[in-house]
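Please produce the structure of this protein holding zinc ion.
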Amino acid sequence: MTIRSLSYAVDEHDHLVRVDEGYYCFAEENGWSEAGSSLGRSLWDYVAGHELRKLQRLLVRRIRDEVGDVELPFRCDGPQVRREMNIRIVARPGGRAVLFSARLRSEEARDVPQPLLDPAAPRAGEPLQMCGWCDRFEVGGEWIEVEEAARRLELFNRSELPPLSHGICPDCNELLLAA
Ligand SMILES: [Zn+2]
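Below is the modeled complex.
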């Protein structure tokens, strides 16, 4: 990947007021089709899953009201890559604007592509829960990496994959609440 970092900012209503070049490039690389019309939209339109939205809203509120500044690890995987990133969230002093800066910590090509992480893959059947923060999947009550999930669910050579339902795993729930 050529993009090592991206940033975006929201106003006091959580509407995106600024996004940088890295944001657009990253969006394109990851198939976020609506990124071009991001400005003016609510940040929360881009966070998948009710629980993660709720937790992130709480976090942003705390950052504005008391904390000021946090940095957290998260994953942003693709079918071909495993990506560890950090996000720094900073409230502008005196204002209600909040700046988000994400940077890449590590990126590894996968030995085998993982179509479960491909937004364009055909899907049908029972939904599979994915953590929107660490990109792990819940299988049989355990949160596991995509390779392991595909293996346990015997997803290889299937023409259709389970639809994803975005949630949050207990570890990330704790991480976001403790930030
Ligand atoms: Zn998680």
